[in-house]
Write a structure and sequence with these properties.
- By secondary structure, this protein is mainly alpha-helical.
- It is built from eight helices and five strands.
- It has one domain (2-245).
- It has helices at residues 2-11, 25-49, 60-70, 100-103, 108-125, 129-158, 163-199, 206-245; strands spanning 12-15, 18-21, 77-81, 88-90, 95-99.
- The strands form two sheets. The protein has a three-stranded mixed beta sheet with strand order 3-5-4. Strands 1-2 form a two-stranded antiparallel ribbon.
- The radius of gyration is 21 Å and the shape is elongated.
- The two termini are 25 Å apart.
- InterPro entries: Zn_peptidase_2.
Length: 246
């Protein structure tokens, strides 16, 4: 019952005891399409430059290790994880996780991604503010994204109070804030990566341009995710702000 009603609220606006067409829903659809396009773009770009071997012939793991050493960082472990584009840096245990398609690959795409994740490790070592804030915010944002709709739907079911709806919107706002803070973190990591790859001589000539294309495509997925989250939040405020006025 709750799940069905939640779907109806997502598709239509709600006032009092009736549903009506939500004109803002088209914006959510557009943002979802943009997010899908961004995902397809990053995968196609990565696959394209995964076929281009770097002239230096170093693997993603080797590049990550040497970049860390060049910055005086010796307490970050590099591990291999399964999957494709599942690469990440975990600041909690200082682990740089490289996927199967990056760890042992000598491609331009793999080196770009490995350097990007190394950029996060460098941010952590240097106390980069937005990364520290994002790390602290993550638990709240994770809970917020999971329970926000449950609270909103429960608020509609019980109907006698707006408190649950208000809390739900507030919890969702934390998830939106997380997406916004992610943007400077990701762009800065890519900028650090490209600068180090060139200055340390891991990529040459067109290889730098190709690596930049891979990282730029990946960055657009974060932009699309942030745009989708913002539009969804505005839609919630639009729907339930009107409900209060009534």
């Amino acid at each position: 019952m709750v799940q069905k009603r939640g779907i109806m609220v997502a598709l239509y606006g709600y006032y009092g005891y009736g549903y009506y067409y939500d004109p803002m829903y088209i914006l959510i659809i557009i943002s979802c399409v943009i997010a899908l396009i961004a995902q397809v773009k990053v995968k196609s770009t990565f696959n394209k430059y995964s076929k281009v071997s770097s002239s230096k012939g170093m693997t993603g793991a080797m590049v990550a290790e040497q970049l860390l050493r060049s910055q005086g960082i010796y307490d970050v472990s590099i591990q291999r994880v399964s999957g494709s584009l599942t690469d990440n840096y975990n600041p909690r245990n200082k682990t740089l996780n490289l996927s199967d398609s990056v760890y042992n690959s000598t491609s331009v795409a793999a080196i770009g991604v490995a350097a990007h994740e190394t950029g996060h490790a460098i941010q952590h070592a240097y106390g980069y503010g937005p990364l520290s804030f994002r790390t602290a915010l993550f638990p709240l944002a994770s809970v917020g994204s999971q329970v926000s709709w449950i609270l909103i739907v429960l608020g509609l079911i019980f109907g006698s109070t707006n408190i649950l709806i208000d809390i739900g919107i507030l919890m969702f706002s934390l998830a939106v804030l997380f997406q916004l803070v992610t943007l400077p973190v990701e762009f800065n990591a890519s900028a650090r990566a490209l600068q180090l790859l060139e200055s340390e001589g891991f990529l040459y000539g067109d290889e730098n341009r190709q690596a930049k294309k891979v990282l730029s495509a990946a960055a657009m997925t974060y932009v699309a995710a942030a745009a989708t989250a913002i539009l969804q939040l505005l839609r919630l405020i639009y729907l339930f702000g009107g409900r209060r006025r009534d």
